[in-house]
Design brief:
By secondary structure, this protein is α/β, with parallel strands linked by helices. 48% of the residues lie in helices and 14% in strands. The protein is built from 19 helices and 18 strands. Strands 1, 2, 3, 4, 8, 12 and 13 form a 7-stranded parallel β-sheet that branches. Bound molecules: 5'-O-[(L-methionyl)-sulphamoyl]adenosine (MSP).
Length: 507
């Protein structure tokens, strides 16, 4: 089954920060997991380069919008391999192939009768690049997200007839309760819909930095329509002229997005696709915000470049490596909810969970097999008490990750990591080693530990690609299928291990 997953495309008016790394890492965990299951995966990320915020930032810096976009897009592109994010393509909305396809699709939407000329008057947030409905306006005409004054806009432009899709969208939500996930976000989208849809601007007259409207060159497309279409256009040109991936991968299995862009992805986007005669995505998964803990012990605020207090992803990667950051973000905040992140929280998880729980378990297991058995064991039956707790784990994790429950799945695996540590203490192989009559029992305990470590490692591979690859090599499992999900079940086999450097050295 083809599996197509996307991140939002990132604005290039500022450098990448932890919030951006978050969506990319989450999507990457799901992409890697599906590849382990043998699915044909296409994983897309990229940058959103048109629109007012970029034009304004460029002017402030005295460069052209494209110069700014080139510079900052490159920073996002560079961040991906540093995070071990395994995207199959990186789209830029300034790619000429994207521009051409946006013009094509939106012309079709017009030909299908969903575009008309009109005058827009209302409130607009330049930071959201969003025309606010009455229900979305904060006190004193401010943006509820950015807390800045909204501007009053009046302009002649073209409208997209969103209201024509009220009934179709209601039907979509009725028929597909998992179209938007998790449930509370589905309800939020539904209640926006229940408020009644109003038509929205499809084009803007004043801006010069955008995709030109082919039937009226005095206008450019409103940046959100240009941006959303990246998910569709990319498949057409990601592999060059020879291969169009659209038939294979469209529609997307998962769009992963943050809660601030819910309206665009759960309402505008399916309506636009319907207007163009294209299939709508299977799921939109909406995650929460990483917050900076507030000093008064309150909930904290959305972490962003402008609000300071950011954990710098580049710095964390340099100091601790990408696995540590990936693990922390997947583990600390339940995926789908808001939650605080901090440097002290990061350090605690690194030391107690990565270094102690997992790193030590791996080192001890390998060290004991080396010490007591010269690194080799014949195929040995495993301890049924422990295998019973590993049986079915892969299936559980698959079911959870099918629902994008990244944190829950990780906790499920971690319970086994902790169980294996308890097993070491309970069975005390160092005691068994003193008694020659216990030789067979020692074989069994060591083989069981090896098996347990191997299984959790297969399941942790999407979260910790670097450490798990090293550990699998030390466990003597480097075959092409050793990291496949089918390998995550108990099967007695001969063992040969090699010494392992600490996976997560203490600092
Ligand atoms: N360009 C639009 C998306 C267009 S998609 C067709 C955009 N870009 S963004 O750079 O502002 O944000 C990209 C993603 O980062 C969003 O999903 C947003 O929710 C996420 N995050 C930015 N700050 C965040 C946190 N503090 N916490 C979690 N994610 C947040 O929106």
């Amino acid at each position: 089954m083809p599996f197509y997953i996307t991140t939002p495309i990132y604005y290039v008016n500022a450098a990448p920060h932890l919030g951006h790394a978050y969506t990319a890492i989450a999507a990457d965990v799901l992409a890697r997991h599906q590849r382990q299951r043998g699915e044909d995966v296409f994983f897309l990320t990229g940058t959103d380069e048109h629109g007012e915020p970029v034009a304004i930032a460029a002017e402030e810096q005295g460069v052209t919008p494209l110069e700014l976009a080139d510079k900052n897009s490159q920073r996002f592109r560079d961040l991906m391999p540093l995070l071990e994010v395994s995207n199959d393509f990186f789209i830029r909305t300034t790619d000429p192939e994207h521009v051409r396809r946006v013009q094509e699709v939106l012309t079709r939407v017009r030909e299908n009768g969903f575009v008309y000329e009109g005058t827009y008057e209302g409130w607009y947030c330049p930071r959201c690049a969003d025309f606010k409905t009455e229900a979305e306006i904060g006190p004193g005409n401010t943006c509820p997200i950015h807390k800045i004054p909204l501007t009053r806009e009046r302009e002649d432009n073209y409208f997209f007839e969103l209201s024509a899709f009220q009934g179709d969208l209601e039907k979509l939500f009725d028929e597909r309760p998992d179209f938007v996930m998790p449930r509370h976000r589905y309800n939020e989208a539904r209640s926006f819909l229940a408020g009644g849809l109003q038509d929205v601007s499809l084009t803007r007259p004043k801006l010069r930095w955008g995709v030109e409207v082919p039937w009226d060159r005095s206008q450019v497309f409103y940046v959100w329509f240009d941006a959303l279409l990246n998910y569709y256009t990319a498949l057409g040109f990601a592999r060059g002229q020879q291969q169009d991936l659209t038939h294979k991968f469209w529609p997307a299995t998962y769009h992963i997005i943050g809660k601030d862009i819910l309206k665009f992805h759960t309402i505008y986007w399916p309506a636009l696709l319907m207007a163009a005669g294209l299939a709508v995505p299977e799921h939109v998964f909406v995650h929460g915000f990483l917050l900076t803990p507030s000093e008064d012990g309150g909930e904290g605020e959305k972490m962003s470049k402008s609000r300071g207090n950011v954990i710098d992803p580049f710095q964390v990667i340099e100091d601790y490596g990408p696995d540590a950051l990936r693990f922390y973000l997947a583990r600390e905040v339940v995926f789908g909810q808001d939650g605080p992140v901090s440097e002290s929280g990061f350090l605690t998880r690194y030391e107690t969970e990565l270094a102690n729980d997992y790193g030590n378990l791996a080192s001890r297991t390998i060290a004991m097999i080396l010490r007591y058995r010269d690194g080799r064991l014949p195929a040995t039956e495993h301890d049924p008490e422990l295998t019973a707790e590993l049986d079915g784990l892969a299936e559980t994790v698959c079911a959870q990750l099918d629902r994008a429950e990244i944190t829950t799945a990780l906790e499920e695996i971690w319970k086994r990591v902790r169980r294996l540590n308890r097993y070491v203490e309970e069975r005390a192989p160092w005691q068994l080693a003193k008694d020659p009559e216990q030789a067979a029992e020692l074989d069994r305990v060591l083989a069981t530990l090896h098996e347990g470590v191997r299984i959790v490692t297969v399941l942790l591979a999407p979260y910790l690609p670097g450490a798990t690859a090293k550990l699998m090599a030390a466990l003597g499992r480097t075959g092409p299928d050793d990291l496949a999900i089918s390998a995550a079940r108990c099967a007695p086999a001969p063992i040969e291990v090699q010494a392992l450097e600490p996976l997560f050295p203490k600092r």
